[in-house]
Design brief:
about 400 residues; mainly alpha; about 75% helix
Length: about 400
């Protein structure tokens, strides 16, 4: 570490602990309301819970993926937000526990048609498909298989998080070894494992709402959405910390510019994947493929699709073409917050049309998302407060510190 960093206090500002405390209080209050909704309207609660869980899980997993990308590619843009995203990644043990209500919903036959008695499946097309394909439900789409695969997914994600976090913490002590090569050896296979696990998880947790529907690119759409939400959340947090030291000393316009460019990249890739799925299914015009869009283009759901096309891609794309905008954290953060909402709306558009033929929002959709989000952020800010905002003795720390203080 350079001598110039000795006088730089890398301790997170007090606002981090304050936010953790307030998020915990808000989460507790909203959790009580969510529990009442679970008792009053359990089916709506479990659907809303899955929506909220996938939304916040995406921030944690996307953060882990971006950390691994940074270890493989280098760059100060990733060093300055490494601890911000590391705190999100370290919420995976909590998210593992928060998956239990989804297991309960599956065991009770609440949300997935393959877990229900055939007579309880309202969609005639799905009911006929399940009746004809009993081998699929017996061998793959069943509670035991669902549970085993979930254990595998979370085990892989938690092991990756543990290794990346452990080696990162070592860089807070003087005379630590250089873990750069170890990070690279884990990050390469780790990204491959992440891509495969989230692809299969998206099949289990989202695509299996309609067992008749097939899309080979669906997992990639979920993956790129997680990367986008993770980068947007990092921009949101750094905008809060930018008002205080040490982030005000470390976060330079070129780093903010890089974060904006990553947001632009992820938006374009999301649009490309989403349009590719639409184009291939439209061109094929096969009965077992078009059901996904038939549900989402009628009953008012088409308006959500139009909003996503315009405000998840077209408008943010046009805004992020501006170089001055991408370099201004005070402006970029508002777009980041908007895109986080668009990510929630995208998941809402994927999940809710499976249960309602007409567009509708329920109280549970809002309350449960906010409750789970507050609980998650309470743990997030607690994690963030536990470590310095920069691994000062890491070999890459100079990319942020030397340029400012050297």
């Amino acid at each position: 570490m350079s001598p110039s960093t000795n006088h730089l206090d890398l301790t997170p500002p007090p606002v981090v602990k304050t936010l953790a405390r307030w998020m915990a209080i808000a989460g507790a209050v909203l959790a009580i309301i969510a529990i009442l909704l679970a008792i009053w309207r359990p089916d709506e609660f479990y659907r809303a819970y899955l929506l909220a869980f996938m939304d916040w899980l995406g921030v944690a997993l996307g953060s882990m993926a971006i950390i691994m990308i940074r270890h493989l590619t280098g760059g100060g843009w990733g060093v300055v937000i490494r601890r911000l995203q590391g705190a999100a990644m370290r919420t995976l043990p909590i998210l593992t526990l928060l998956f239990v209500p989804i297991l309960i919903a599956v065991a009770q036959g609440r949300i997935y048609p393959w877990a229900m008695p055939l007579a309880s499946v309202n969609d005639q097309h799905i009911r006929e498909h399940l009746a004809k394909n009993t081998f699929v439900t017996a061998s793959y789409l069943n509670f035991r298989g669902f549970l085993i695969r979930a254990i595998i997914y979370f085990a892989i994600w938690n092991v990756l998080s543990f290794l990346l976090s452990r080696w990162s913490k070592e860089a807070d002590s003087a005379n630590t070894r250089d873990n750069t090569e170890r990070f690279k050896r884990v990050s390469g296979p780790g990204l491959i494992l992440y891509a495969f696990t989230i692809a299969f998880a998206s099949i289990d947790w989202l695509m299996s709402f309609d067992p008749t529907w097939i899309s080979t690119i669906f997992g990639l759409i979920i993956l790129i959405g997680e990367l986008l939400s993770a980068m947007c959340f990092a921009v949101f947090v750094e905008s809060i910390l930018y008002r205080c030291k040490p982030m005000s000393e470390m976060l330079r316009p070129e780093f903010v510019h890089d974060h904006g460019k990553w947001m632009l990249t992820f938006i374009m890739v999301w649009a490309y994947f989403s349009f590719s799925q639409w184009l291939i299914i439209w061109a094929g015009n096969l009965p077992n493929e078009i059901t996904f869009y038939l549900k989402r283009l009628s009953g008012g759901w088409g308006w959500i699709g139009l909003i996503l096309a315009l405000f998840h891609f077209v408008v943010p794309f046009a805004i992020l073409l501006s170089r001055p905008f991408k370099r201004n954290i005070r402006k970029l953060v508002w777009l980041a917050i908007w895109l986080l909402f668009m990510r929630w709306l995208d998941l809402f558009w994927i999940i809710e049309p499976n249960f309602s033929k007409t567009l509708r929002f329920t109280l549970a959709d809002i309350v449960v998302t906010c409750a789970l989000g507050c609980v998650w952020m309470a743990f997030y800010f607690r994690n963030l407060a536990s470590l310095p905002l920069l691994p000062a003795y890491d070999a890459t720390a100079g990319e942020v510190l030397e340029a400012k203080h050297g």
